Amino acid sequence: MAKVVGDLRQRRKVEHVAAVRALGDHPASTNWFEDVSLVPCCAPELAVDEISIATEVCGVTLPSPIVINAMTGGADEVYAINRSLAAAARRHGLAIALGSGTAGVRSPEVAYTYSVVREMHPDGVVIANVGMGTDAETAKAAIDIVGAQLLQVHWNVAQEMFMAEGDRDFRGALAKLEDVVQRVGVPVIAKEVGQGIAAEQAVQFVECGVRGIDVGGRGGTNFIAVEAWRRGLQLAESWQNWGLSTAASLAEVIDAVGNRADIFASGGMRTADEIVKAMAMGAKAVGIAGPLVRLLGQPDGEAALDRYLEELHAELRTLLVLTGCRTWADLRKKPVVVMGRLREWLLARGRN
Ligand code: FNR
């Protein structure tokens, strides 16, 4: 039985990559950052050399706010992806989160598909990942496989509900989170995977002791669509819009707990413009997942990934010049203009 479950888990890892590559981002589902505007500064009084894009999250300093977000590990077929992602993380000075580590703990023969990330990025920030409801021993073991400095605990109820073999009982996960926070010995980040976190749950997560929240909002990779693809299910269009857009989730969560936890923006973050808007709203870092695994699927994958990350970093500096800011701390003091649906959403939720 354990072997059957292990095989199913490994096949799922491979199918997730295939689905994300086949589906791409849905054109009609956006993260709402188009409703956010920065105010340009035409007289910046700055030299590009003065600009720093470094940031700090949960007590860890990062040379760049871009985090390669949790994707994979746990099957032979995804080893090369983790190896390439970690090599890119080292070249560009990025933190990298791993896919859920439970497979590596339960099936030690695939632990090498995770530990390669530490081998390729020996001095970098590596973030381990486990699912909601995971016990502290398993979480600790997942951290130890890669010597992670931080742990993500992901909440993915919508994905589980659409997964044929998914969980159907979500009780007790908050108590488990509290136990994990107390026992793993590294700061813990609560994370969604593409449906967003509302202010109410952000408060609950912080009360469990998390130091970070990754909003994992709607507008990029959609695990409802990914699971439907795996089952050959025809999905009603409305499911493309289930959840909180990343910009709405980010605004809610920063308003609710931004002074008690470091907030990561993720979910459809693709351009420097979106990253800088999120940082201006108060995010401390920004996660990107789907596009990176799609770039690696191209024939010149590693080079394409390098070009993408290089260009993002160059444009982050450009946008800091164009807003007259030397650091992210300067940017957070600048005005951000919110319009359209995002403004209406925040007004309706009583959060301005
Ligand atoms: C993911 N994601 C994810 N998240 C998580 O917490 N644990 C996991 O194991 C995985 N697995 C995974 C596999 C693949 C192939 C992808 C693309 C993504 C979710 C990911 O971290 C992120 O929250 C979402 O993908 C939304 O970000 P993007 O893809 O829109 O940038």
UniProtKB/TrEMBL annotation:
One Pfam family of this chain: FMN_dh
GO cellular component assignments: cytoplasm
Catalytic reaction(s) noted: isopentenyl diphosphate = dimethylallyl diphosphate
Top-rank taxon, per record: Bacteria
GO molecular function, one term: isopentenyl-diphosphate delta-isomerase activity
Chief location category: cytoplasm
Binding site for FMN: A70, M71, T72, S100, N129, K191, T221, G268, M269, R270, A289, G290
Localization annotation: Cytoplasm
The protein's Enzyme Commission number: 5.3.3.2
Keywords in alphabetical order: Cytoplasm, Flavoprotein, FMN, Isomerase, Isoprene biosynthesis, Magnesium, Metal-binding, NADP
InterPro entries, per the entry: Aldolase_TIM, FMN-dep_DH, IPdP_isomerase
Enzyme class name: isomerase
Gene3D superfamilies the UniProt entry points to: Aldolase class I (3.20.20.70)
Binding-site positions, Mg(2+): E160
The FMN-dependent dehydrogenase domain, residue ranges: 173-334
Subunit details: Homooctamer. Dimer of tetramers.
Protein's job: Involved in the biosynthesis of isoprenoids. Catalyzes the 1,3-allylic rearrangement of the homoallylic substrate isopentenyl (IPP) to its allylic isomer, dimethylallyl diphosphate (DMAPP).
HAMAP family in UniProt: Idi_2 (MF_00354)
Name under which the protein is recorded: Isopentenyl-diphosphate delta-isomerase
Species, as recorded: Alicyclobacillus sacchari
